[in-house]
Write a structure and sequence with these properties.
Blueprint: E1 2-6, E2 9-11, H1 22-27, E3 32-34, H2 36-52, E4 55-61, H3 67-76, E5 80-84, H4 94-105, E6 113-117, H5 128-136, E7 140-151, E8 156-163, E9 166-173, E10 177-180, H6 192-199, E11 205-206, H7 247-260
Parallel strand pairs: 1-4, 1-6, 4-5, 5-11, 6-10, 7-10
Antiparallel strand pairs: 2-3, 7-8, 8-9
Bound molecules: flavin-adenine dinucleotide (FAD).
């Protein structure tokens, strides 16, 4: 069994500060992490490899410093990784990103399943994995909360999807692109031995030429969507009011104020 995990490195949005310039932040600012949703995709790949034999490998499109996030995935137990990096990829929208990932997948030899996170916490379009499935001409299963049954010999998978009106059970052929939710299982922590081994790992890189793509298929040239500007939401003004007095009296005053503000 071979599972390809699409893993993106993102800014650590939890450490954003209002002073940061949005686009600059996206491009180079701040601490970088494994896209949190992709940790669930990694966990799913590792569990499938444990249950069915085989391996989970990582595929990342990003800047050279994305190797840090890749090493986290290797330390969790992934058996291999490829970094897709080239200046020509700068400013790629999700479709151009999907083209780059697809070209790399087509050079990976046989694989049984492609795993992805629900979305990336920076671009947050939730489009890239769907577009990879469309470009490969294979099924896409989104919002997957549980893999009910999987048969790599018969090439079938049955999943439970979380949809607005509840749960939906879907059966599909394999290979397929499967994007998973938190419910799929808690990501394991990298082991100490895993971290040590990953720290020494040499991560192969592929660029535009290696992927057989042309410059007008990637970057701004290959993108339909341009981001002329990225701005952080305006900082919220908050006011603090202390209600003095006996608890019962203070509670009454609080209720009045909440009613007046139409909070309750
Ligand atoms: C400096 C900068 C400029 C940008 N300019 C533009 C622009 O002009 N127009 C525009 O549309 N977008 C732009 N982007 C955003 C970029 O296109 C998207 O971040 C990227 O295409 C992925 O889309 P997303 O973040 O919405 O991921 P989603 O579609 O939300 O990701 C869904 C899943 O796909 C997989 N995935 C996504 N990205 C990758 C990746 N890179 N490697 C491996 N797996 C991945 C992961 O499993 C992820 O969970 C810019 C980003 C940067 C950093």
């Amino acid at each position: 069994m071979k599972a390809i995990v699409l893993m993106k490195q993102t800014p650590d949005t939890a450490q954003l500060s209002a002073s940061m310039d949005g686009l600059k932040l996206m491009a180079e600012g701040g601490p970088r992490i494994v896209n949190p949703w992709d940790e669930y995709a990694i966990e799913t790949g590792l569990t499938l490899a444990e249950d069915h034999g085989g391996e989970a490998v990582l595929l990342t499109m990003g800047k050279p410093e994305s190797t840090e996030a890749i090493k986290t995935g290797l330390a969790m137990g992934c058996k291999g990784a490829t970094l897709l990096t080239d200046d020509a990829f700068e400013n790629s929208d999700s479709l151009a990103t999907a083209r780059i990932l697809t070209a790399a997948i087509q050079q990976q030899g046989d694989y049984d399943i492609i795993l992805a996170g629900k979305s990336a916490i920076d671009g947050d379009t939730a489009q890239t994995a769907v577009q990879v499935a469309a470009l490969l001409g294979i099924p896409y299963l989104g919002y997957v909360a549980k893999i009910e049954a999987i048969d790599f010999d018969a090439k079938t998978i049955t999943v439970v999807r979380a949809i607005d009106s509840g749960r939906e059970t879907v059966t599909s052929s394999l290979p397929a692109v499967v994007s998973v939710l938190k419910e799929i299982g808690e990501p394991r922590y990298p082991s100490f031995m895993g971290i040590r081994k990953a720290a020494k790992a040499k991560i192969p890189e592929m660029g535009l030429a290696d992927l057989g793509l042309s410059a007008d298929e990637v970057g701004a040239a290959g993108s339909n969507v341009q981001w002329p500007e990225v701005t952080l939401p305006p900082a919220q003004e908050t006011q603090l009011e202390l209600i003095e007095g006996e608890p019962e009296e203070a509670a009454k005053v609080l209720v009045q104020k909440l009613l007046a503000e139409k909070v309750i």
